[in-house]
Amino acid sequence: MTRTTYDAVVVGSGPNGLAAAIAMQQKGLSVLLIEGKNEIGGGLSSAELTLPGFIHDTCSAIHPMAAGSPFFRQLPLKEHGLQFVYPVFDAAHPLDGGGAAVLKRSVTETANGLADHAYRKLMQDLVNDWPWIDSDVLGPLRFPVDPSAMVRFGFKALSSATQLARRFSTREARALWGGMAAHGMLPLTYCATSAIGLVLMLAGHLQGWPIAVGGSHSIAKALASYFISLGGEIETGCYIGSMDQVPPARAVLFDITPRQLLSIAGHRFSDLYRRQLNRYRYGPGVFKIDWALDAPIPFQSSSCRQAGTIHIGNTFEEIAAAELMVWAGKLPERPFVLLAQQSLFDRSRAPAGKHTGWAYCHVPSGSRSNMTDAIEKQVERFAPGFRELILARHIFTAAEMEEFNPNNIGGDIGGGVLDLGQMFTRPALRFSPYRTSARGIYICSSSTPPGGGAHGMCGYNAAKRALRDIFKIK
Description:
This protein is an alpha/beta fold.
């Protein structure tokens, strides 16, 4: 540290911590960003987890939300080394029998491929509305810029994925929809489980699902480089366990979940706020696996061999059953698997002629169960011969995901349950979800609206709140 006091200190350097630090530094404040690990990034990290030369993303891998973030897209990140590459198809969903449902950039082409007119009818109006409502959807509850467009989106988003699935007439359309909605890590019969699926499909139609060249850590490095170019400071390898360890500042923003926030600053909060944070709910965890491969994954469907992301779960009904089992604390024999094949499009990820694979499935919170066999059987189901290509593998159980990153409570990579009860009031019911009950202390993690994803909007919105409250800057 070159200063003894700062205008603002941000604790945690995930995408939200970086966004908060940048937003405040852009206003001419003196900002220090503190990271407990030796490298910045949080979920935006990459490493040689299996064999030398194979670069794997340790958490976040595909970045539709980063590319479409209302805040990030205003930043000159290309000038700071960030390069995205776009797969031929954003996402594909293999089905028994060799076919696949495919998310394409064009709404019409996607609908035609699904042989379902209802898909085009559902998505086209939302695509047209999205530029007017994106900042409202990806922000705290407030009066929207375009109320009518927001109502149209909200009417669909607040329904359950199961209800919305009834609009579709084909197996392909229902399957594609089920895979999108299952990103929410909730039973698909729950209200508002359509929200995440709709946002992901909109992102595919509007800007695509890109891959960061060189690894997801490239996004964090570009954000950090821009922050430093503005005059910001970063200190790594500095774990904050109490408020006494935070340098003096007028505002402190924490990119952590409520559990850690209580541990660090709980003594400064009101009894009511402490009770609210203690009641905050975390969701299921993930079991994650990375592979070093001798060749590309041999999916039966040619579309799957051209997609950056693969949703493996077969029909909507099979996905819904697997997600319900996880929510009930059970391990499905055939889990829903999210898989990415970055090296098909970013050749820097593996040695010449070799490839990487990245996948996870949902498991009960804190599980130490090894789901390697179940995941690999699911991949082999749609890509016969896959296991013969595995050179090495690396796994994270749900418990190990938390050990790697304390923000992943029980392996929950979304910062807490994103259901109707915690969608806009996360982490507590307050006029502003980013304010704590202690003046000058804010929370800016994915445990605040709009929730998980490498979009930085939680940090950006929290920074705007702190700028207004403490510094009287709009």
